[in-house]
Design brief:
Blueprint (H helix, E strand, L loop, with lengths): L2 H14 L3 E6 L2 E7 L4 E6 L5 E4 L23 E4 L4 E4 L15 E2 L4 E7 L2 E6 L4 E6 L5 E3 L4 E6 L2
Antiparallel strand pairs: 1-2, 2-3, 3-4, 5-12, 6-8, 6-11, 7-10, 8-9, 10-12
């Protein structure tokens, strides 16, 4: 089973409402358990390596006093995470950030990297515009379909 198949399976389980799925093939076993707080993936690889991933639970939204007036984001396009993993704004700690607030981007511009199961996936923009807000802190875990950026089309 390759990484794409595993990601598709995780998406399916998350959307279906199933609490647990286990697949076992020869020397490969994967168990995906979900609940409303977190998703846990355990995988046994041929070399008997253990890989476990448990993204951080979503915290409840801050109370109204944190933001006196709710910002209208309906005019912006939301760039969402295509997978579960760890969000990085640069290719390495000593490299500059790929995009910052105010930067103009085009279709195909690399916005960030999401590390999933030791694979570093460049996330490219599907729209042209200007980055208005970065919604995730560097080196933070992200969920599938989690908003990452707000982009204003130009």
């Amino acid at each position: 089973m390759d990484i794409k198949q595993i990601q598709d399976l995780i998406r399916f389980v998350a959307k279906s409402g199933v609490n647990e799925v286990a697949i076992e093939q020869n020397d490969f076993k994967i168990t995906i358990k979900t609940n409303q707080v977190q998703t846990v993936v355990n995988t046994v690889l041929p070399a008997q390596q253990q890989v476990a991933y448990a993204p951080a639970a979503h915290a409840p939204a801050p109370a109204a006093e944190a933001a006196p007036a709710a910002e209208d984001t309906s005019k912006y396009i939301t760039v969402r995470s295509p997978m579960i993993g760890t969000f990085y704004r640069s290719a390495s700690p000593d490299k500059p950030m790929m995009v910052n607030v105010g930067d103009e981007i085009t279709i195909g511009s690399v916005l960030c990297i999401i590390e999933a199961m030791k694979l570093f996936n460049e996330i490219e923009s599907e729209v042209s515009g200007r980055v208005v807000k970065i919604l995730v802190d560097n080196a933070s875990p992200v969920e599938y379909d989690q908003p990452l950026f707000l982009v204003e089309t130009i």
